[in-house]
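For consistency, the fold was encoded as tokens, which produced the following:
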Amino acid sequence: MRYKRVLLKLSGESLAGGRKEGFSVEVLASYARQIREAADAGVQIGIVIGGGNIFRGIQGAGKGFDRVRGDQMGMLATIINSLALQSALADAGAKAKVLTSIRMEPVGELYSKEKALEYLAAGHVVIIGGGTSNPYFTTDSASALRGIEIEAEALLKGTRVDGVYTADPEKDPHATKFDALTFDEVYSRGLKIMDLTAFTLCRENSLPIVIFDMDTPGNLGKILKGDKIGTIIKN
């Protein structure tokens, strides 16, 4: 395997599949199978999931919610998604623990770097819910922060597209995909990969980002083996 320890970032919207909200049992099962296979191969996997299939704080702020309260609701949504994935992983035969950035035992244990590393070393998939526990920070920022903390070798951002393009491939038929980019090139081209806080954290701590299509079964395993799919961004 090319990577021994990674932080996998999943979007909440992807868990909904073709639906606008909620969960797709098929998507959860597919993700769980891919993650279990990677864990069985000896890769240590930390996971951060968004909450957009349930609630997004910034959208709530536009509908009359106080931004801080809205973001707190979004944090709880990420924990619901973390529990859903943990259940899917257990059903697939994998060991998984949910750690939360907000104290809420017995839902999950309070996150700490030491606890996460202990569970990873014991062969558990570690799902970290609750974002950074602070408002105004996205789950992209949480994934960058947790990836750095657990000393991951890469941040794998599983999306519904197969990499980074020069333009939106659904709107521009001439858009071409990048196989590799530097952080500086992403800045200079104005490409939107993650929010700037998350992106800067990765850049300053030399944490490579791999953007890939998680919805195609087998892609996660290919990335971990070092196959050139998706787009890698590094210093």
In short: The longest strand covers residues 5-10. Residues 5-234 form a domain with the Carbamate kinase fold (CATH 3.40.1160.10). The chain has a mean pLDDT of 93. The two ends are 22 Å apart (CA to CA).
